[in-house]
Specification:
Length: 129
């Protein structure tokens, strides 16, 4: 399903709504990295190892869950696409996008053809010199 959106943010919003756990997992991973970095910079030797290890373990957990969410979400989307293809159902947005792409390609072809015809006409008028 290649849906074109007006802006980059609209595309991001569409993808985030499609798989909401991935941005949450990325945010959790970033929080864990910032927490671990702050503990390393603080340098308190008494609680350093225990708290740092908690942050690093949280990071590993967050990354693992993010990857799992991406795999499950990708599998789910592929199943939906496969079901739609098999049933022959296409959404109105897909049809509109397909028609718009076809019209744009026809316009580009027509423009190139007119340029080629004009170039040919000029070449034959000047004798190919």
């Amino acid at each position: 399903m290649d849906i074109e959106h007006d802006t980059t943010w609209a595309r991001y919003k569409f993808k985030f709504m499609q798989q909401p756990l991935i941005p949450l997992g990325v945010a959790a991973t970033c929080v864990a990295l910032v927490g671990a970095t702050r503990k390393m910079q603080a340098g308190d030797r008494n609680s350093f190892n225990r708290q740092l290890l908690r942050w690093l373990r949280f990071r590993v957990l967050a990354q693992g869950l993010t990857i799992a969410a991406a795999v499950v979400g990708g599998w789910k989307i592929s199943q939906e696409r496969r079901a739609a293809r098999q049933s022959g159902i296409t959404s109105a947005a897909e049809e509109e996008t397909k028609n718009a792409k076809e019209q744009a390609e026809k316009a580009r072809f027509s423009s190139r053809m007119k340029e080629a015809e004009e170039a040919h006409r000029l070449e034959t008028r000047t004798g190919g010199k």
